[in-house]
Design goal:
The structure holds two protein chains of two kinds. In chain A, 44% of the residues lie in helices and 27% in strands. Chain A is built from 27 helices and 32 strands. Chain A has a five-stranded antiparallel beta sheet with strand order 2-1-5-4-3. In chain A, a hairpin with a 5-residue loop joins strand 16 (427-431) and strand 17. In chain A, helix 1 (10-19) runs antiparallel to helix 2 (23-38) and helix 24 (756-773) packs parallel to helix 25. The longest helix of chain A has 56 residues, at 655-710. Chain A is rod-shaped, with a radius of gyration of 83 Å. In chain A, 26% of the residues are buried. Chain B is α/β, with parallel strands linked by helices. Chain B is 56% helix and 12% strand. Chain B has nine helices and five strands; from the N terminus they run βαβαβαβαβααααα. Chain B has a five-stranded parallel beta sheet with strand order 2-1-3-4-5, with helices on both faces. In chain B, strand 4, helix 4 (88-96) and strand 5 (101-104) form a beta-alpha-beta unit. In chain B, helix 6 (145-156) crosses helix 8. Chain B is elongated. Chain B starts with 6 loop residues before the first strand and ends in a 9-residue tail after the last helix. The chains are: A alpha+beta, B alpha/beta. Chain A binds chain B through residues 688-689, 692-701, 703-708, 711, 715, 718, 721-722, 725, 729, 772-775, and chain B through 13-14, 16-17, 19-21, 23-24, 26-29, 58-61, 82, 84-85, 105-109, 112.
Chain lengths: 906, 209
């Protein structure tokens, strides 16, 4: 603040007043004023009453005094008023004479005000002179210094690390709180002692001392010392002692600042860390070794590159494989190891990767040490720092040669398959898990009549008749869920549906595969409409053929070369009562009669060996167990090499014919044998009766005789009569026996002259009883002059007996008319005698049939009687026949040659 | 001929058998008559004496079995069959039809005698029973209708009072009837009367209402 001032004159006035107007004094006074005004120090002169007598320019400028202030009391001047006790000081100075200094603070300015006596010219103390020395800066710096000192002290005391300042001769001058605490000494105790003498309270400072001494002895350069020291309070601590020489410009004395740091924990930590580090290092070493091993062992070629793409690591394998050195591979030298065709693309890919930092993936052929190229797939990955910058490339080459070959093969095979599918005649359709059509080949289009676009993506059921769809869906769902198949996947016949609605038969086979985690089903569909038609036709023709074959009244079969039955016609089943399998098991040999087996087998073998047709007669067992004769004929079918492929066999039932033949062949012998047995029954009946009657009478008479004799009185006459009867009847019985015996004698056919009438009589006697019993009347008309016949008595008796008996029996059922048996003999011709035996029975429907062997109308008859009669007649060169009138009766007639004629013919 | 002495009839078509049997039976001190056929036998008048019939199975005309059937209705004598054939079915049939015995020729004298005696005994008993019955019946015919009414009650054991009540008459009247019945039937006791009634086939009355 400065007010506008004119030239300063006020001061002069003051002085003038004081001193009088002396020219010389005036000159001195004005020079003084000028000097005072030139002095920068504010000067104020105060009178004894503390009013301002004079002040210089500087006072006006600095303190802000104005000319108006001249003569004012100091207390009225603000700046002066600010000085405490100013008036007192002035008074003191005036009185005492000594100077005093007073501090003045005026706002931010500090002054030291020197108050000194002002002695006037008359040497009287006129007042005081105040000079204001601006010590603002000084104070400030002092303050600052104080502040700093305090601040520093505060810092020092706050600082954890002990700190001391030593004199040049190493005496402790000052220290911080931490120091005294650490070393356990008080400030006073430590003051002034040499550093290494520390430690009365601490007993183990000796080594420490030594170290310190040595340290300082070397030179007071800044240095450090690490020392271990045992403090009683803390134990062994490791300290770092730092000493800094301090020298200040203007201070000759240098000092040493010593700091201590307890690095015990740090050291421990360091030790621990070191251990850890060592451990880690060891691990790292081991790991590294492992990694190296891995990398070396990986069956892959491992490489690393710098961010610029320059290879900086190749594992053993790469080097071994290529037979190169790392130098040869560097600076893109590795590209020369690639197949010429792959070099450009690979280089391009690598450079691109390096430039962009993106993953590097490619495939190429790499030349082996022996010159052979093999396919590899290369993979490179960039390691990045935090900013995304590439720090290193890590890469791997994998030998995919085999895979490549396989891929090539697969591709070529896929290609082949594709061609096949495209060209196939069968429809090939692939569908996904949801049953939608993924692919269809051209054949599908042709077969179903759809455009390809119309069926892709549609469900497979589109191609099935509606009725089948549900079944398919369910089966398909079930398969997906459970893996159970309800169809045969290799060839199943189903119905398909064309676009035009036509249903047609197809044969389907399908398979399943996995593709990228999805199930794909592929089906092959063959239109078998034609095949079915052909089958039908074939079946129909087969049917009609079979009908023919089955109708043949003979057994037909075909057999393989080994003798297994392939085909048999119906008659075979019927005859044997078995089906084809049973027959094969049985092998037909089982059906052959055991007596024929050997012959049959031999014959078969012969045919097989010589190729002659197989012909044999054998007996086969029928289903009901009966054996029948068959004529078997077999013809072989041969192939180009003349090997037998098949046998065609026909069996003809010859049983009936054989039987007839056999009957024919044996009839005479059997007849004559049977003759005796057949008529035995009838004879036996007659005999039994014939003998029994007289026998019964004999016995009864015998009893009677005995009784009569033992009666009282004995009836002797009666007894005699009885005895006589015995003789009579017994003889008669004997006679019968004799006759019978004669009948059974195997006498050869006698050729004697016989009286036919006698023979007939004898027989009549035999049958008389029977006739009587049956109430048959017997009449005879026997020619008296009948010439003798030549023959066997017994046989002729047999003949007649049979005929008579027949006649009698024939009339058994007659009730309405008398039963009459009429016998007549006549000479029919000069050569022939004729005998007629006529009954009044029922008659015969067929007079010839009765003579057949085994023909009989009797329940228990053998039917041989009349056949025997006829054979007897014929054996005598005669004839036997019957004539009959139905309802009236039958006449059996036989002729026998007479006498001379028979003789001639014998 | 003693009318009461037993008689044996023999029928056989063989004369020898007839002769021998005749002699044999005579020697047994029995009357005997022989016939050659069934017809002959039927024609002949038979004495009223216990009899036995020795019959051959095989006869001309009517056979032995047929004759047996014919005689079954009437009061024929027991039959002993004889046969020269001796087939089982015939013998079984004969026995079932009630023959006493079946003998095959030649038969033992013992067997024959035994059979004949058996037959005669049976016939005697039969005849006796027949006579008895005839007698009873003649007695029964003497009863009045009322008495015939009362008889069932009496033999049923009902008291006279009860009988009287049921028949609607007095007790005394019943008592009288009872007495008459007893007298006419010649029954000595009620028990005897009951037996007589049984033989006659008179039903006993059930409890009267």
């Amino acid at each position: 603040m400065t007010t506008q001032r004119g030239p300063v004159n006020h001061t002069r006035t003051g002085l003038e007043r004081a001193n009088g107007p002396d020219a010389a004094t005036n000159v001195a006074a004005s020079e003084l004023i000028t000097i005072l005004d030139a002095v920068e120090v504010p000067v104020i002169v105060l009178r004894r009453d503390s009013t301002i007598s004079y002040f210089n320019k500087a006072a006006a400028d600095v303190l802000g005094l104005s000319p108006l202030d001249s003569g004012r009391a100091s207390r009225d001047i603000p700046v002066l008023a600010a000085m405490p006790h100013l008036e007192k000081h002035c008074s003191d100075v005036i009185a005492g004479g000594a100077e005093s200094r007073v501090n003045l603070r005026d706002r931010e300015r500090w002054f030291i005000v020197r108050i000194s006596r002002y002695t006037a010219a008359d040497l009287q103390v006129a007042g005081t002179v105040l000079t204001f020395t601006n010590v603002t800066a000084f104070r400030a710096s002092t303050d600052q210094a104080i502040y700093e000192r305090e601040f520093t002290k505060a810092i020092l005391n706050t600082v954890a690390d002990p700190l001391i300042v030593l004199s040049a001769d190493h005496r402790i001058q000052t220290g911080n709180y931490a120091f005294y605490t650490m070393f356990g000494v008080s400030r006073d105790d430590a003051q002034g002692i040499q550093l290494w003498e520390l430690g009365n309270a601490v007993s183990e400072l000796a080594p420490f001392r030594q170290q310190l001494k040595e340290m300082f002895a070397i030179s007071p350069q800044s240095q450090s010392l690490e020392a271990d020291n045992v403090f009683t309070t803390k134990g062994l601590r490791t300290l770092i002692v730092n000493a800094h020489p301090l020298s200040f410009p203007g201070h000759s004395e240098s000092k040493i600042l010593v700091t201590f740091r307890d690095i015990t924990e740090r050291k421990q930590a360091e030790a621990g860390l070191r251990e850890l580090n060592e451990g880690l290092e060891k691990q790292v070493r081991v790991r590294t070794e492992e990694l190296s091993l891995i990398i070396e062992t990986i069956p892959g070629l491992v490489w690393c590159a710098a961010p610029d793409g320059e290879l900086n690591y190749l594992n053993r394998r790469i080097l071994d494989y290529t037979g190169a050195t790392i130098d040869a591979m560097s600076k893109l030298g590795w590209t020369s190891f690639l197949h010429p065709d792959d070099q450009e693309s690979t280089t391009h890919a690598w450079l691109h990767a390096v430039a962009t930092g993106q993953a590097y993936e490619t495939q190429f052929r790499l030349r082996r040490y022996d010159g052979v190229y093999r396919w590899f797939s290369a993979h490179g990955q960039a390691a990045q720092d935090n900013n995304g910058g590439v720090t290193r490339w890590y890469g791997l080459l994998i030998d995919i040669c085999d895979r490549k070959t396989a891929e090539e093969a697969l591709k070529s095979s896929e290609e082949k398959h594709r061609v096949i599918v495209e060209a196939a005649n069968d429809a090939v359709i692939s569908m996904d898990e949801n049953g939608l059509i993924l692919l269809a080949n051209p054949a599908t289009v042709r077969m179903f009549g759809y455009e390809l676009a119309e069926i892709l993506g549609k469900p497979l059921t589109l191609l099935m008749p509606e009725s089948m769809r549900n079944l398919h869906e369910n089966g398909y769902k079930r398969y997906l869920a459970t893996g159970e198949r309800h169809l045969n996947w290799h060839g199943v016949e189903v119905t398909a549906l064309r676009r035009n609605g036509q249903e047609f038969p197809v044969e389907v086979s399908f398979g399943e595969m996995m593709s990228e985690g999805h199930r794909i089903f592929t089906g092959f569909i063959r239109d078998i409409s034609e095949k079915k038609k052909a089958e039908e036709t074939l079946r129909a023709s087969e049917q009609s053929l079979r009908l023919i074959v089955d109708s043949i009244p003979g057994m037909v079969c075909t057999m393989t070369a080994r003798g297994e039955l392939e085909f048999v016609n119906r008659q075979v089943y019927v005859y044997f009562g078995m089906n084809l399998d049973e027959l094969n098991d049985w092998s037909l040999i089982g059906a052959v009669h055991e007596d024929d087996v050997e012959r049959v087998v031999a014959r078969w073998r012969h045919s097989v060996e010589t190729g002659e047709p197989y012909e044999v007669e054998l007996r086969h067992r029928r289903a009901d167990g009966a054996y029948r004769w068959f004529f078997v004929r077999g013809l072989p079918l041969r192939d180009a090499e003349n090997r037998i492929v098949r046998w065609y066999i026909v069996l003809t039932d010859t049983e009936d014919r054989r039987r007839a033949e056999e009957a024919l062949r044996c009839s005479e012998t059997r007849l004559s044998q049977a003759t005796r047995t057949a008529t035995i029954g009838e004879f036996a009946a007659a005999i039994a009766h014939e003998i029994n009657q007289p026998l019964a009478a004999v016995v009864a008479n015998g009893h009677a005789c005995l009784r009569w004799l033992s009666n009282q009185p004995p009836g002797l006459d009666k007894a005699q009569e009885a005895a006589e009867r015995i003789v009579r009847d017994g003889t008669e019985a004997g006679e019968v026996v004799r006759r019978i015996r004669a009948l059974f004698r195997h006498a050869p056919l006698e050729r004697i002259e016989l009286n036919l009438n006698e023979v007939i009589d004898e027989v009549l006697h035999l049958v008389s009883g029977e006739a009587a019993k049956r109430r048959v009347g017997v009449e005879t008309e026997l020619a008296e002059d009948l010439p003798a016949v030549i023959g066997d008595r017994i046989q002729l008796q047999q003949l007649v007996f049979n005929l008579l008996l027949n006649g009698i029996e024939a009339m058994d059922s007659i009730l309405d008319r008398p039963k009459k048996l009429f016998i007549r003999t006549t000479q029919e011709s000069p050569e022939t005698a004729l005998v007629n035996i006529q009954d009044s029975g029922v008659g015969l429907t067929d007079p010839e049939k009765v003579f057949e062997a085994f023909f009989t109308t009797k329940e228990n008859g053998m039917g041989m009687g009349l056949a025997i009669c006829r054979s007897i007649a014929e054996a005598h060169h005669g004839r036997l026949w019957a004539t009959s009138v139905e309802g009236t009766g039958t006449t059996f007639s036989f002729t026998l040659p007479v006498g001379a004629r028979a003789n001639n013919e014998s | 001929m003693n009318p009461d002495s037993p008689i044996v009839f023999v029928i056989d078509d063989d004369f020898r058998v007839r002769e021998s049997l005749c002699s044999l039976v005579s020697s047994m001190r029995l009357q005997v008559a022989v016939f050659g056929s069934a017809a002959e036998f039927l024609e002949c008048e038979k004495p009223d004496a216990p009899a036995c019939l020795v019959l051959d199975l095989q006869l001309p005309g009517t056979s032995g079995l047929e004759l047996q059937q014919q005689l079954a209705n009437g009061d024929a004598p027991p039959i002993v069959f004889i046969s020269g054939h001796g087939d089982i079915p015939s013998s079984v049939r004969a026995m079932k039809a009630g023959a006493i015995e079946f003998l095959s020729k030649p038969f033992s004298e013992q067997a024959l005698m035994h059979a004949i005696n058996n037959a005669i005994t049976i016939d005697r008993t039969t005849r006796q029973k027949r006579t008895e019955l005839a007698e009873l019946q003649s007695h029964y015919s003497l009863l009045t209708p009322r008495e015939r009414e009362v008889l069932p009650f009496v033999v049923a054991g009902y008291a006279n009072k009860v009988t009287a009540a049921d028949l609607g008459t007095s007790e005394i009247t019943i008592g009288v009837h009872r007495g008459q019945i007893m007298r006419k039937m010649e029954a000595k006791s009620l028990a005897e009367l009951v037996r007589m009634a049984d033989k006659l086939g008179v039903a006993r009355t059930s409890k009267p209402v």
